[in-house]
Amino acid sequence: MLQLAQVGREDVVYDLGSGDGRILIAAVKEFGAKKAIGYETNEDFYQASLSEIKHQDLQEKITVIKGDLFKADISEASVIALYLSPEAIKLVTPKLEKEANYGTRIVSRGFEINKWQPIKVKNLTYSTGNPSRPIYLYTIPESLK
């Protein structure tokens, strides 16, 4: 996901539904993102992500908020990662259209954002040779701003 979004040193990466924090950690450690912020409501995932971030001494660059992604302030994001159900994507799309800045890269694993045209689609395969869900890359167009 992060490779497709071409995350780099100037990026602020948000993961809406950040789970165990692996995208946040990879954004900072592997891609050199300036900062990563995650939103997670599940207590177990939230605690697991905090523990791993602390274990890797990444608290200065990664913040995880136990809260509703629909209430997230995404105005600082240059990249937003989504690994959500189709229903959740439909619900979050108006928020992205309204609050994300022009040029923000949105990367969605598994499900398309309806009515948006992806810039790139990457199909992956598991080590077993079976296909995994595609990854879609979008940017917020100027017409929405």
SSE topology sketch:
Blueprint: E1 12-16, H1 22-29, E2 35-40, H2 43-55, E3 62-66, E4 79-82, H3 86-99, E5 105-109, E6 120-122, E7 135-139
Parallel strand pairs: 1-2, 1-4, 2-3, 4-5
Antiparallel strand pairs: 5-7, 6-7
Assembly state of the chains shown: single chain
CATH architecture: 3-Layer(aba) Sandwich
N-to-C series of helices and strands: EHEHEEHEEE
CATH superfamily caption: Vaccinia Virus protein VP39
> Biggest β-sheet: count, sense, barrel?
7 strands, mixed
CATH fold category name: Rossmann fold
- The CATH class label is Alpha Beta
| Poorly predicted runs | none
Count of alpha/pi helices = 3
First-last Cα distance = 25 Å
Strand content: 15-25%
Mean pLDDT, all residues: 94
**Number of extended strands:** 7
Number of domains: 1
Radius of gyration over alpha carbons?
15 Å
Q: Largest sheet, order of strands side by side?
A: 3-2-1-4-5-7-6
List the main descriptive attributes of the protein structure presented here.
seven-stranded mixed sheet, single chain, alpha/beta, 23% strand, 145 residues, 7 strands, Rossmann fold, 3 helices
Would you summarize the structure shown here?
With 145 residues, the chain is of the alpha/beta class. It has a single domain, classed as 3-Layer(aba) Sandwich (Rossmann fold).
3D architecture notes:
A seven-stranded mixed sheet has the order 3-2-1-4-5-7-6, covered by helices on one side. The model has no long low-confidence stretch (mean pLDDT 94). The chain has a single domain, classed as Vaccinia Virus protein VP39 (Rossmann fold). Helix 2 links the parallel strand 2 and strand 3. It has three helices and seven strands. The longest helix has 14 residues. The two termini are 25 Å apart. It is α/β, with parallel strands linked by helices and 145 residues long.
